[in-house]
Amino acid sequence: MHNIKKLKIWNDSIDLCVDVYQALANMPNDEKYGLSSQIKRSAVSISSNIAEGAGREREKEFYYFLNIAYGSSYELQTQLILCEKLNFISEEVNKPLLDKLNDVQKMIYVFKENINKRII
């Protein structure tokens, strides 16, 4: 088991989620239960799955939940790009989110690979 508060990967994914919520504050009301809701769920899923995996006793289980978090990060990436293309958020707002998301994706990938070496 890991102390999630000490995991940079978890802290950065929490910060990303907060930034995503703030960026979506001005989305159109008719998207409140559509794309906006889906984006928020994806953003929350990243840190939540990292936390759930960190709370498991076996590294293999942690690896499994990191895979889910990794998939959610790509889902979030797709949704943020779509949001920009639909002019719901500007490129100026979206670029820092995508950059931070890219950093989180890299960390998840490296973390997964390190765990995978230990469980094989």
Description:
- It is a single chain.
- This protein has helices at residues 8-23, 35-54, 59-85, 91-119.
- With 120 residues, the protein is an all-alpha fold.
- It is elongated and about 45 Å long.
- The model has no long low-confidence stretch (mean pLDDT 93).
- It comes from Chryseobacterium herbae.
Largest sheet: none
Q: What helical percentage do the residues reach? A: over 70%
SS-based structural class? mainly alpha
- Summed over residues and divided by their number, the pLDDT gives a mean of 93
Strand content: under 5%
DSSP summary, beta strand count: 0
Compressed to H and E, one letter per element, the order equals: HHHH
Topology:
Elements: H1 8-23, H2 35-54, H3 59-85, H4 91-119
Helix pairs in contact: 1-2, 1-4, 2-3, 3-4
What is this structure, in a nutshell?
The chain has four helices and no strands. The chain has 120 residues and is mainly alpha-helical. The mean pLDDT is 93.
Descriptive labels:
120 residues, mainly alpha, 4 helices, elongated, Four helix bundle protein, 23S_rRNA_IVS_sf, 23S_rRNA-intervening_sequence
